[in-house]
Amino acid sequence: MPEITDNEDGNSSPPETAVAGGSAAEELNLNLFKKYELGKLLGCGAFAKVYHARDLRTGQSVAIKSINKQRILKGNLAAHVKREIFIMRRLRHPHIVRLHEVLATKTKIYFVMEFAKGGELFAKVAKGRFSEDLSRKYFQQLISAIDYCHSHGVFHRDLKPENLLLDENWVLKITDFGLSAVTDQIRPDGLLHTLCGTPAYVAPEILAKKGYDGAKVDVWSCGVILYVLNAGYLPFNDSNLMAMYRKIYKGEFRCPKWTSPDLKRFLTRILDPNPSTRITVHEIMDDPWFKKGYKEIKHPVDKEFEFKESGEESRYLNAFDLISYSSGADLSGLFSRCGNRVNSEMFVSAESPEKIIERIEALGKEEGMRVAKKGIGVRLHGQNGEYVVMVEINRLTDELVVVDVKRSVFGHDLWIDKFKPKLNDLVHGPGTSGSR
pTM of the entire structure? Predict the structure, then answer.
């Protein structure tokens, strides 16, 4: 089934299509970083391949998603990959696939993830519809995970049976957060605006292209999934795509004869084409049909999950930044492009942010520059007011910080010749990443 996958810049990207079979022979390193032994190819798409692998230290089975860096750059999908890493490293829920670690080479990025032995839920539904009780069981697991995501400001935006996996105990696991949105993408009107999702599962307000609430579109997709589990087919389906869109706009669907009155009523509330009157996740969890046999999973809201602005004190780097310093590989400049007017470099330091800023301020004043503090950082301007050097400091660990230096074309030689030699004593061991 085709996917709508416009990226944040408005450029369309091709869909990923799962293909079974194959081997890992084309991967240059079958023994990945001497940590994982790659095995059977589980699936592949335009930008990534997923392999079964074995952890050489524990013998545990894992899934490894291999992403082609060049295709990511050509498809303008760097932001999607960064977002997926950021989200998956922080989500900790029994019904969400766990990301163990991220590794990389010069050409590939590797997601090492929890292995879901049971495969896609889609494959199970394709063999025949589920009973109402079994449909309820998986819907409860799905909603529990979605409630957790929404409480952390994450909206999946591409929920469908193909993105729901089963482990060896037939427990549901949500995967593929590549099209997810987080609260920092919400525009001033309070809505998201990126066109994404799979047509048969997409909410009518996304098709309208007028902005949408991420939580409400996830609820709609969950409703379509529940319908599919119970019926064995889609509620809105037509060989003519525009005819299918018209059905979605109007919320026109019929439940099969075996559907109970309570489930019909419940589905009508979820598949309400008007987002303002559509049932919410919390209302779903209070509904009598849903609550039957439900065991709530308590999950605290992790405040460290949220994006932090650069002005907040000693902010910690997000997961994508942290992998630059992992034992697997140096990923500095992972998505950098040549020809930028602004050059930058990073180095790791064991010195306090205050001391580093003090040193850079003093050097700037020695050169007759105007100094302006900005959050946990400092900006240096030339006599004509032009920005020359900007330094931001992020907390890496309790003992280490990362100093990110950006310099304009006017400040390149000044930084290299005057500043850098006098700051070498701040660099922690071999952590210098160099220019990127």
Answer: 0.63
For residue 151, list its beta bridge partners.
Answer: none
For the chain, the residue count is 436
Neighbouring C-beta atoms of residue 57, cutoff 10 Å: 9
% of the chain beyond a pLDDT of 90: 30
Domain range 119-303, CATH class? mainly alpha
Q: Which CATH number, 3.90.870.30, 3.40.50.620, 3.20.20.70, 3.30.200.20, labels domain 4-114? A: 3.30.200.20
What distances in angstroms separate CA 370 from CA 353, 357, 380, 382, 421, one per listed residue?
20, 14, 6, 6, 21
- The gap between the terminal CA atoms of the chain, to the nearest Å, is 40
**Residue 269: phi, psi to the nearest 5?**
-70, -35
How many helices, marked H, and strands, marked E, lie in the chain? 14, 19
Architecture of domain 308-333+344-435: 2-Layer Sandwich (3.30)
- Separation CA 167–CA 180 (nearest Å): 22
> What are the domain boundaries of the chain?
4-114, 119-303, 308-333+344-435
Residue 316, number of CB atoms within 10 A of its CB: 15
pLDDT tens-place string over residues 73-123: 776 677 777 777 877 877 889 999 998 888 877 788 888 999 999 998 988
* Total Cβ atoms within 10 A of residue 352: 12
Neighbouring C-beta atoms of residue 317, cutoff 10 Å:
18
Q: Which of 6, 133, 158, 218 is catalytic?
A: 158
189 a catalytic residue: no
Q: Is 365 annotated as a binding residue?
A: no
